[in-house]
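BUG: 3D viewer hangs when loading the predicted structure for this chain

Environment: internal workstation, default settings.
Expected: structure renders.
Actual: progress bar stalls at 90%.

Input used:
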Amino acid sequence: MPMKSMQKNPEQSQAGFTLLEAAFALTVNTLVLLLIVGGMGVIRTANVQLEQRQEAEWHLFLIQLEHELEDELMVQKTSTTVRTKSKNPADTAVYTYEFRINKVLRYKNGEGYHPMLLQVKALKYEVTNEGISIQATLSDDQTRRAHLILPKAPIKQ
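Structure tokens produced before the viewer hung:
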């Protein structure tokens, strides 16, 4: 009985992918690309929502600060702190608006605190002739600026 040779035909060993293997590879690549594109869409949507939330929080902070400063005079200012007192002589409270630990906090007479703006990367106060300018960089890396009118306390002589 003649023995069959165990060697493969050289023409068969040079064959490429079968149609089934090519279809499978194409399907896997398509799924990976769909996942990447879908993930990028989710990230884009999340960034837009974060920016909108940060913008809303910034405007709320400004409205609250403007309302509180209506009846106050500036006493002292540093680059990250503003101290005010009431225009009403009967009210002796001193209010401090301070940037600390990634937040803007409001203290009354140095006790307790009320968080006014959260997720702040940097904040800087500047005194102008009319009031105070605020420049803040929030967690979305956008720099926001505002100018509030705040009279200075008269210097007693």
